[in-house]
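The protein record filed here:
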Amino acid sequence: MPSQLLEAVAGAAERLDKALAAAFPEVSRARFQALIAEGAVSVEGEAVREARHKVKPGNMLRVVLPEAAPALPQAEAMALHIVHEDKDLIVIDKPAGLVVHPGAGNETGTLVNALIAHCGDSLSGIGGVRRPGIVHRLDKDTSGLLVVAKNDRAHHGLSDQFAAHGRDGRLERSYLAIVWGVPERRQGTISAAIDRSAANRQKMAVSKGANAREAITHYEVLEELGTPPVASLVRCVLETGRTHQIRVHMAHIGHPLLGDGVYGAGFRTSARKLSETSRQALNDLNRQALHATTLGFEHPVTGRHMQFESPAPDDFGKLLAALRLNNTEA
């Protein structure tokens, strides 16, 4: 597709980038800032390179919007469990083991590679690049629901909702987790800031340091598992979205996730409390017992509320069933 010429008349006296974003909501303000810096924007026929340039009501604004550049990650055809798709976004039920975004050690075989192949020309360009807009992530070994933007407008709208962390009522995210033991309180809120661990930069940790970021997790014990209880099924609702937040917070209160070799390493001996069937189910899980089960948000273009539910996958369900029958009193 060749470059597009966008034209609009400024409706108010305001910054150029803000005026353009108001006139063309399908393109993000950040994208306009980049185009302005590149000299692709003119006001009354004069090129302007300052996003803060003040326009007047009635000024003619022109933008040369180039074709979206090809995505840097390569397209890779992969099977995807698509829960919903429209011209603006796609909702995926991600399996455990799938990395979301290319990075060191995972340059290929990621969800982004798969989405580039699946979406093709329906990706109109995020920030001028034909790629899916990742607004939140799930750990490689966490399964469940993930929403991805297909264009700038959707990316901007979804990013705004995730930045608000659901405090404005638009976004809802809940997870199912199987944790060691039974929390003393059946319901509670963990409010503990998180930062990189000083001892191991590959890990996150609860911290009171200057760089620690606010992190809030609400939890509810849904079921005690085993006789006597050796584990619990817990629903966790995120009020913030920090890296490894649920895993760090549940370990912080003394109830790490089963199968979490990073934050639950100190509980490996607890496997002695499991029956042979439960131990085998935990070995078969081979990951942290965490599943993103609920995702709700406001559609960034239509404004319609959307809600999705994902049942726990087979490996999670088999561990849950085995733990329910776990009996060390027999």
